[in-house]
Amino acid sequence: MKSVKSPDIICRLKEIRNKKKFTQTQLADLVGLKRQAIYDMEAGRYLPNTSVALRLARVLDTSVEDIFYEKLQEHQPVALVDEQTITDPRVSIAKIRDKLYAYSLSGKNSIMEEMKAADGLLEPGNNRVMILKSNEQLENTALLLGCDPAFSILGHHVHKNRTDAALHCRFASSKKSICQLADGYTHIAGIHMHDTGSIDGNQEFIRKGLKNFKGLLVAFAFFEEGLMVARGNPLNIRKPSDLAQDGICFVNREKGAALRTLLDDCLLKSNIPFSAIHDYNDIVNTHSQGALKIIHGICDVALGLRAVATAFDLDFVPITRVRCDLVIPHDFLIHTGVKTALDTMQKSSFRNELSCLPGYDASCTGKIIAKF
Fold first, then answer.
1. What is the DSSP secondary structure assignment for residue 372, as one 8-state letter?
2. Which long-range contacts (CB under 8 A, 24 or more apart) does 128-132 make?
3. How many Å apart are CA 233 and CA 331, to the nearest integer?
């Protein structure tokens, strides 16, 4: 029998066998092996194939993962992104160009409105992390920053199409996504800037924000942007300039958000100063936060997408349709998570689901818009 060593695999066979009160010979007979094979496995000299591992698990009434598991590379150096001080040590980890970056799993940007399992636990000082995933899992996980809620759907489809790959999505405005990409903190940036005349807004945004960028701009989807209002539109909001009317309470998005830029452009074209909008400086950081404020009667109008308004049973006043794109550096095109995401965007199952979202158009999904 060929002897195979793997220092990254921990074998608990002896421990579990002793608990079950089997001798090596008894276990070997039940599994259909020679006693020497059991001895070699327990000594770390031999790893069984899948069939043998499954037979061992069945006889010992446990799982293969309980008998053999990969040694985690714990306690590695890490750089904490965004939050300088955090109270929750649970973090999501992105491995980018051989460096580990940690993002807090709590706080305003932790997308989407759910709790997530952590990839690691920060140690005191926030510069080292105890890894809770295998190195292979970290290597195959891509990070996407952006503010399109449908990114999470792409993430689910990525894992369905390839179980050893993953796409983690984290909320960030178009401006912040590009800045984080430039700083090497993400694999992919999602942007949806608005066109000016014949100038493609996303391409222009890259030229200005990413000097000497080499990579692809890939279309994700078209979607409708506008104003979210209560069901029935009780204040009869029809256009952005209506926000200047007395008695209308509004919540804005943060600077750098494409929706805020859209609103500002509309107000400037209508010669309406920002100061004329009540609560113009009242900020929410996500589409869903704005929707919830409307539902709870805290405000009357918020910026958002038609799909988000529909999901929260709100009415929607359209302003424009915009294309959301993915910005991908050239050296990440061979990354397992990135490649799987691009492949997934070509599949009809994903495109069909995307097309079912209110206000979404997947006719452009996966198309290469530009090469840089």
1. -
2. 128/75, 128/76, 128/77, 128/78, 129/75, 129/76, 129/78, 129/91, 129/93, 129/100, 129/102, 130/74, 130/75, 131/72, 131/73, 131/74, 131/75, 131/76, 131/93, 132/72
3. 48
Are 304 and 290 a contacting pair, CB within 8 Å? yes
CA terminus-to-terminus distance, the chain: 53
Q: Which two tokens stand for residue 200?
A: 């493609």
Distance CA 366, CA 347 (A): 9
Token couple for 290: 């704005």
Please report where in the chains the tokens 């179980």 appear, as a residue: 163
Distance of alpha carbon 5 from alpha carbon 10, whole angstroms: 11
Q: pLDDT tens across 122-141, in order? A: 888 888 899 888 888 999 99
Residues in the chain, total? 372
Task: Give 9-70's CATH code, choosing from 3.40.50.300, 1.10.260.40, 3.40.350.10, 3.30.830.10.
Answer: 1.10.260.40
Residue range 191-234, pLDDT digits in tens: 999 887 788 999 999 999 898 899 999 999 999 999 999 999 99
Confirm if 144 and 165 have CB atoms less than 8 A apart. no
